[in-house]
Write a structure and sequence with these properties.
Blueprint lengths: L27 E5 L1 H29 L7 H4 L7 H27 L4 H20 L6 H8 L12 H14 L1 H6 L2 H32 L4 H32 L2 E6 L8 E7 L1
Parallel strand pairs: 1-3
Antiparallel strand pairs: 2-3
Helix pairs in contact: 1-9, 3-4, 3-9, 8-9
Length: 272
């Protein structure tokens, strides 16, 4: 494997020509394999899923709603491990999008604004995932709508969410078309899986909640399926971003400037 400092391929930044003052010291290099990263993220998500299902089956089979530890792994609860993991996945996406934004700014400037909007959007999604801000819209929207039979729109926050998705879809359409075909397909698949969970399954869960409530195994499994799709969609998106960086940028180098009387140190990340 070549050192990142020796690579001068397409997509390198001006700062990629940086060399440490002491040429005898090699540049620190971290190699990242997108498939390995995604396998790890997927394995962690699957482990959380199995623990959650185990707890929920125990809770409803034995009639122990207050079973110790169940809430900490329940996919439909807040302030627990699955919620924190979902937030982490969104933050990783936001960080990767920010990296791409900076790199695109140095390359050609093409569609930089769209990459930046995506990065900011995923940061907002991470904050919302952690604080559940969207759920605060349910009761105010019900009062505005002013009727009782909500059907699949029982969780009324999905109404403005659907409108927002349509608007953003139109905004990013040109951006999506200009992406490499492989990346475009990856993005569409990731988006379809994620939206299928957070909107599609949410509509079903809302209707079931309206008819039968939440305190039952069926609703628990619906909510688990929803959150699983969301996690899967984000993991696919992270993989798509890593593959995009590997295909178009190859390696990313950085250096940290210390005090003027000290030698700066350089580092690099190489995706393959």
């Amino acid at each position: 494997m070549k050192e990142a400092s020796s690579r001068q391929g397409r997509g390198s930044l001006e700062m990629s020509d940086y060399r440490p003052a002491d040429k005898k010291k090699p540049i620190n290099l971290i190699s990242v394999n997108p498939t390995s990263i995604v396998r790890l993220l997927g394995a962690l998500a699957f482990l959380l899923l199995l623990i959650n299902i185990g707890f929920q089956l125990t809770v409803y089979a034995n009639g122990k709603p207050d079973l110790y530890g169940a809430r900490f792994f329940y996919f439909d609860s807040e302030d627990n491990l699955p919620a924190a993991y979902s937030t982490l996945l969104l933050l990783i996406s936001a960080l990767l999008l920010m990296v791409i934004t900076v790199l695109k700014k140095y390359q050609s400037g093409a569609m930089v604004f769209h990459w930046a909007v995506l990065s900011a959007g995923f940061l907002i999604m991470a904050i919302d995932e952690e604080l559940s801000i969207h759920e605060e819209l349910i009761e105010p929207l019900r009062k505005i709508l002013g009727y009782d039979g909500y059907g699949i729109f029982y969780y009324t926050w999905v109404i403005p969410a659907i409108v927002l998705i349509v608007v953003l879809g139109l905004f990013f359409l040109k951006f999506l078309i200009r992406l490499p075909v492989k990346t475009r397909i990856h993005f569409v698949v990731a988006g379809a899986v994620y939206i299928g969970g957070c909107i599609g399954v949410e509509l079903i869960g809302g209707r079931y909640d309206e008819l039968h409530g939440k305190e039952n195994l069926t609703y628990s499994l619906i909510a688990t399926f929803e959150e699983s799709l969301e996690m899967t969609g984000i993991i696919i998106f992270i993989w798509a971003l890593l593959v995009y960086i590997a295909d178009t940028i190859k390696d990313v180098q950085f250096h940290v400037e210390g005090p003027k009387d000290q030698v700066s140190r350089a580092g690099g990340v190489f995706l393959y």
